[in-house]
Amino acid sequence: MASNMSAIFASFQQHINVEQDLREEIRQVNKDIDQKAREIQTTLQIIHQEGGLTKIADCCALTRKLFLDVKTGFSKLAVLIPEDQYYRFHDHWRFTMQRLAFLASLTVYLESGQLAMIEDVAQIVGVTSKREDGFHIDLEDYLMGLLQLASELARFAVNSVTNGDYKRPLHVSQFVAELNSGFRLLNLKNDGLRKRFDALKYDVKKIEEIVYDLSIRGLKSEEKSEDKSGASSTS
Amino acid sequence: MSHGQRGRRGGGNRPWRPQIGERGKNVVEGLNENSPVIQSFRKFASELDAKHDRHERLVKQSRDVTIESKRIIFLLHSIDKESKREAVLAEAQTRIASLNTTIFKEIAKELQGQDQYQYLRAVSPGIQEYIEAVTFMFYIRDGKLPHWDELQPSLSYGEEGQINLIPIEFFLGVGDLTGELMRCCIQSLGTGSTKSCYEACSFVRDIYIGFMSVGHTGHREFQRKLNVLKQSLTKMEMACYTLAVRGNEMPKHMLADVFSTGEVNDGADEGFCD
Asked: Which compartment or compartments is the protein found in (chain B) (predicted)?
């Protein structure tokens, strides 16, 4: 084999070795972050449980504490990634990031009833919100997280009724409707985000049916002047 | 959207889809256009649009690179006698140089300040085809495979950005090169230049050994290229065998015919579909 050829392949091999070592490190760090994310997710499941509604504040406080570990994790990850190579390794943490965007926005919703902006989410998980500023959260990952949030809130609406809170679904309905109209402003390509967005209408529908059930039975507290039917047309 | 769908509902065989109900409609209509949520979604929309637009522009530029690279390769194949060699090589080099200073420069500008890996999928086909053309030119001129670092300077534009040659992309291009070399080898049977036939064969064998020596790259495409490479090599080795066994029995130009009948259509590695 020509010497120049083997030199080229040797340097390619070396390049691959370096890359794979780096990927291995990234996998390790990401594993820890993902572990934390699962812990947070489990913690937040309390909102669906009987009597869980009263524990929301404590639960959020606990979640916030767990997010600190996530922050540490991401600061470890950030130093591993060379500048302008975020997307070379993005696949390693993409799903973790989406899940964390979901969990952070759920926490913010539970605390304040507001939609967490991308800056808020970035702050909670300990990354930046813009690529130029360093290790960031990708916009599409954030949006994916919000879509997961809508599904979780649909479930939350069901369970809060079961647990005797009839006001919650109204608020959730308002919140998700706003989210939905926000998403409609986006020109989505035929990609993963688009597919996930297509599922949003089912969540919207589910929440509306709950509101319908409540209003038809007079369980809805009439603080706002809703029109008398307020019914879903999906009969 | 909900208005339009309402009218068509129930008529026809469209699959049933949930509608935004009355209440949802009220909410949507009652939305404050200036709410922070809507405003930030407007910002997201323009951010996503900018990204998609850039992606589309890059895909288009990459396609232009592919077309020109294929033409350069075709041009290089037209070397059938020594006298044409210099002229063709000169033209190929000029065209490669003009690619570097036109389309690639635009791509570099487009990528400036961006994360190249984010748009890798858009530019990768063009870059691979370009690598194929350039390495083919190098092979014909020097009989050597260049190191990717040797190609990097011509894709760097200083202040105006640069296109980083990613080694894996380079080798995917080299994988395609072997297909061209096989064609070159069979063709040179026809022109009776047995020496270049053997040369091409041993060059490809070296590349094959190189590819084999590299362990798992974590790249799916890589494995596929290796298989195609092996097929090309087998074909070339058979050509050399025929040459050795029957080379003295018949006129040279007939050998090519012997071979081309046995050659199966292998357009698969070319990606003409794009």
From this structure: Cytoplasm; Nucleus
Concatenated DSSP letters of B27-73 = HHHT--TTSHHHHHHHHHHHHHHHHHHHHHHHHHHHHHHHHHHHHHH
Q: What would the pLDDT profile of A32-64 be if each residue is shown by its tens digit?
A: 999 999 999 999 999 999 888 889 999 999 999
Q: For chain A, where are the alpha helices, taking DSSP H only?
A: 3-44, 56-80, 86-112, 118-125, 139-162, 168-183, 192-198, 200-216
* Closest chain B C-alpha to A125 CA, distance in angstroms: 20
Q: What is the pLDDT of residue B257?
A: 66
Q: Give B 66-85 residues with CB within 8 A of chain A.
A: none
C-alpha dihedral (A202, A205, A210, A213), degrees to nearest 10: -140
Tens of pLDDT along B173-203?
999 999 999 988 888 777 767 888 888 999 9
Task: Please give the backbone phi and psi of residue B272, each rounded to the nearest 5 degrees, phi first.
Answer: -70, -15
Task: Give the gap in angstroms from C-alpha B191 to the nearest C-alpha of chain A.
Answer: 26
All domains of chain B in start order, with CATH: 48-165 (1.20.58.190), 167-261 (1.20.58.200)
Nearest CA in chain A to B38: A182
Domain covering A11-137, topology: Methane Monooxygenase Hydroxylase; Chain G, domain 1 (1.20.58)
* DSSP assigned state of A117: P
Is the Cβ pair B41, A20 closer than 8 Å? no
Whether B18 and A234 lie within 8 Å, measured CB to CB: yes
> What's the mean pLDDT when you consider all of chain A?
90
> Under a CB-based contact definition with an 8 Å cutoff, are residues B272 and B265 in contact?
no
Say if the Cβ atoms of A2 and B144 lie within 8 Å: yes
Considering only the top CATH level, what class is A140-219? mainly alpha
Nearest to A139 among B19, B27, B47 (CB): B47
> Do residue B23 and residue A140 have CB atoms under 8 angstroms apart?
no
Closest CB to A202 among B18, B118, B148: B18
Q: Which two tokens stand for residue A120?
A: 């808020």
* Domain boundaries of chain A, sorted by first residue: 11-137, 140-219
ipTM given for this complex:
0.85
Helix, strand or coil, per DSSP, at residue A151: helix
Q: How many CB atoms lie within 10 A of CB B140?
A: 18
A88 interaction partners in chain B (CB closer than 8 Å): 115, 117
Q: What is the mean pLDDT of chain B?
A: 82
Q: Quickly count: other Cβ atoms within 10 Å of residue A154's Cβ.
A: 24
Band the pLDDT of B19: cuts 50, 70, 90: low
